[in-house]
Amino acid sequence: MFPQYDVIVVGAGHAGCEAAAAAADMGASVLLATMNMQTIAQMSCNPAMGGIAKGQIVREIDAMGGYSGIVTDHTMIQYRMLNRSKGPAMWSPRAQSDRMEYALLWRQLLEGMDRVDFWQEMVTGLVIHDGRVTGIRTGLGIEIPARSVILTNGTFLNGLIHIGEKHFGGGRAGERAATGITEQLVELGFEQGRMKTGTPPRLDGRTIDWDALETQPGDEPAGKFSYTDTPPLTDQIPCHIGYTSQRVHDLLKDGFHRSPMFNGRIQGLGPRYCPSIEDKINRFADRDRHQLFVEPEGRNTCEVYLNGFSSSLPEDVQYTALRAIEGFQHVKMFRPGYAIEYDYFPPTQLSSTLETKLVPGLFFAGQINGTTGYEEAACQGLMAGINAAKYVADQEPLILSRSQAYIGVLIDDLIHKGTDEPYRMFTSRAEYRILLRQDNADLRLTRLTSKLGRADMHDRLQRVEEKERAVAEIVRILERQSVTPEQLNPLLTSLGSATLDQSLKAHKVLLRPNVHLEQLCSASESLRTSLAPYKQEDLEQAEIQMKYDGYIKKEQDSVDKMNRLEQVKLSDQTDYRSLGALSAEAREKLSVVRPRTIGQASRISGVSPSDISILLVHLGR
């Protein structure tokens, strides 16, 4: 009935969609197995993509030929660049999406791929022969053969939903949990744990007093995620901001004794940086209010997402507290918030390709690895899809380093440090974040991945080369063209910057911290004319490169030093337990993680610099 597929992807969330698309684009035959074809690419939580560090990941996915940025650009209803008041290493794009359009476009995109087939049914297990994965087994007992399998099960593995004192099986509201896979993986020797996440109530926007809330408009003009020619966003929809109060907190506290978080029913750890409202009240008892983001679910629905009010309290407690919020006095709920517990597998059991160490050909991506967030899941799916296709073709895998991409930071953190709480990406996790900006993801990654054979990468590479030429030309213009005191002094005075006594090359003035290229162009007609032919993104790229050239070079020096350690290979056969000079913790961690290089070993939690020195001595260095 079924042919042997090169890659079977189990789960059609953000990780599964990118995995299936990546493997298919590389020429692999793919089966995407999902419990419900109507929920492909469902935005289970907030209807948004991007954010702090997450926006960088989406741009990296796009630069590598992925589709999350393209789908977001086509379906977003608001766009904002966060952290503009900080340096460009911190700038992070975020888009509010139309939930239904986002999922629909992803499905249409996948259905348009000739190499992607679909099967709608629960996958209950894997087929294993001679220690290798050779297919999947479904709830109907059907075995579908494959040369590799990617598990992207999200929150569905033995998922348990909690609302107050009620709990029931489910992977998402209205959908059943997936069973069988966890039990088989544990039997095969995998270590398993439990995690928890939550979601806020969905509200009826027709019952909200919008005038009582702060308006949060999008950027004008709106930016975008993809480096391709996606359509510009017009007719943005505003979000709004509200606040809890001490009365709201008191009403919520009245239900704490019925909360599964506080009565011990929930065992899994939740995300530290996206806590429930009851957790925020408990942890930050000194605060008399918390910010709430009131986000529309789409252009053609009145459903509203209340970001910042995740809760697993009883529905009556949620409802009473909601109506005590300014602007929500008459609000109606579509459904209450809830918490969900699910199985995950500590990612130290994976190699850098996201292939499991125990079962060749089996890859994990997304929340099964202990991460949280659409973006973190999508980039893992992308890498797992690429490497599964390479595994099948017997080709060298693609592994991104920490200095190449936030994706590299994320995977390196997971497989070497592990996680016992839902892992979320932040700019602070990247030691080379000045290099890993959202504006240069194409310059960093497109040339690297253009040899993968993915669709349209040739066109993308041409765009990158054109951008590089344009940026170089802009820099030359600014280095050669002078600006006069008459042109610049009124601007410099208004900015509180020292005035010019004589003409100066434009790039010298641009190096001042409070002066920007757009301001120079507004003051100098000749400069404005010279730069008029260039795109805004090229002008921005040139300005960043010039302003931060010293910092970029210093960080690149650090990368070069670390790369020397990455070249020192460690044998898979090394018996770390026999190296008595190592600390006990280092012997244990190195034996479990089995790093490929000294550089990787140095990033394992519990492995000290002295342990690294001992390893270098052991290697004769």
Question: What does this molecule look like?
Answer:
The mean pLDDT is 93. The chain is built from 21 helices and 23 strands. A hairpin with a 2-residue loop joins strand 11 and strand 12. It is globular. Strands 15-16-17-18-14-19 form a 6-stranded antiparallel beta sheet, with no helix packed on it. The chain has a 5-stranded parallel beta sheet with strand order 6-2-1-10-21, covered by helices on one side. A 4-stranded antiparallel beta sheet has the order 12-11-20-13, with no helix packed on it. It is α+β, with helices and mostly antiparallel strands. Helix 11 crosses helix 12.
Features:
621 residues, alpha+beta, five-stranded parallel sheet, 21 helices, 23 strands
Care to give the gist of this entry?
The chain has 21 helices and 23 strands. It has 621 residues and is an alpha+beta fold.
Output the strand order for the largest sheet.
15-16-17-18-14-19
| Radius of gyration of CA atoms, rounded to a whole number | 26 Å
**What does the overall shape look like?**
globular
- The total beta strand count reads 23
Largest β sheet strand count, sense and barrel closure:
6 strands, antiparallel
What proportion of the residues form beta strands (DSSP E)?
15-25%
- Low-confidence sequence ranges: none
Distance between the termini: 57 Å
What is the number of helical segments per DSSP (H or I, 4+ residues)?
21
Oligomer: single chain
Mean pLDDT metric = 93
